[in-house]
Amino acid sequence: MRHHNDMPVMTPDTPAPELFTEPKAAVAHLIRLYAEATRFLCDRFAETMQSGHPGCRFRAFYPEIRIATSSYAKVDSRLSFGHVSRPGIHASTITRPDLFRHYLEQQIGLLLHNHEVPVQISVSDTAIPVHFAVANDPTMTVPQEGAAEFILRDVFDVPDLNTMNDDIVNGTFKLPPDGTEPLAAFTAQRVDYSLARLSHYTATDPVHFQNYVLFTNYQFYVAEFEAYARKVLADPESGYSSFVGTGNVEITDPAAPLPLADKVPQMPTFHLKRPDGSGVTLVNIGVGPSNAKTATDHIAVLRPHAWIMVGHCAGLRNSQSLGDFVLAHAYLREDKVLDDDLPVWVPIPALAEIQIALQQAVVQETQLEDYDLKRIMRTGTVASVDNRNWELRDHTGPVQRLSQSRAVALDMESATIAANGFRFRVPYGTLLCVSDKPLHGELKLPGMASDFYKTQVSRHLMIGIRAMERLRDMPLERIHSRKLRSFDETAFL
Q1: pTM of the predicted model as reported, rounded to 2 decimal places
Q2: Amino acid 140: pLDDT
């Protein structure tokens, strides 16, 4: 048999590039190009699985957005996005333009307004892996290597690590020989990879994710979230339209049953939806920095407007009580999972907009203000570690570092979520609830925390939701702070 590089390559017809000055028309063309490419791959895949090796290769390409600017004209300096950093050619491959329609219309509209030149929509030279094309068709699955009668890679393109990485967001991207700079933070293959992973880990389709994401590390919050969802679905003035549970079960009737999934996913996820995507998603990431990194690595491609951690923590000060809140304004990173992507010497700043929204939400829910608020909430450094049983090691080193850092709380996820928010330019925040005080003899043991859970979980969750609602009412350019943007930044959020 001939080597696959010697075989003819069959591709769909490639239309000529088109220029657009209207964002809706540009996105509509992206959707057409993507649909044609993926339909070609799905049809050829179905045929090949029926009839065997076709004697050729099949290939289709992602669509691309490209803009060429020649002026250093200064745009509104208050904006942290919506414009390229310098003249030249900027381009990015695009996947699932149907899913990202609103986002793309918004970002392209800003480009057109700020630079007053058209955008070009065309077919790129980046091949679509057959796995990602087939993933959009629920009637199809890609067999494991060796299960088909032919070698899959001999006929179709498969995921390529060269175009599926975090070089852009990590600041390590190397310009190609033609000097084209990235327009977006993620390549199409990187987005497709995360969309597939999200479906796997959360057991919900990415289409359900909302722009405001709450992370928790306890299942107790899920029951409270469902109870709140049913309450607001019964209120036609709430603006919420449906509630989605694992397995993509969606209800609009507040009394409708929500059956449990046959298999509990690694990160059970629930979505309280609004028609414009401005609802709230709750992800139970479980325990540990690895889970926190995995979840945020993939949710980041959806470009949410904010994510906040509302979990439990160990209180480190004797003056704290079980049930007190901790609003993180700094992070001691001993989680280790992001050290290769974001060095520990990089400061992770508190974001004023998120901090204010969280504090105002605490005031709203507790009816305590000013100095009285200090009785139940501390603002300070949160330390995140990668060892759940850190108490069992020699205390001299860890406790000394915690004291020197002025940490007031310790968990395993918050610093990871904040650091990945910083890395991915997603506004982030942390409001934790003290569930034990190991340095002061109050350990989390069976039975000790049952009353605490009953009284505090509901209030804690409501504070997170209220904070998100405050952020939702804020102009987008205020939430997306310039503190999260680097020197040479992509135009797209």
Answers
A1: 0.92
A2: 67
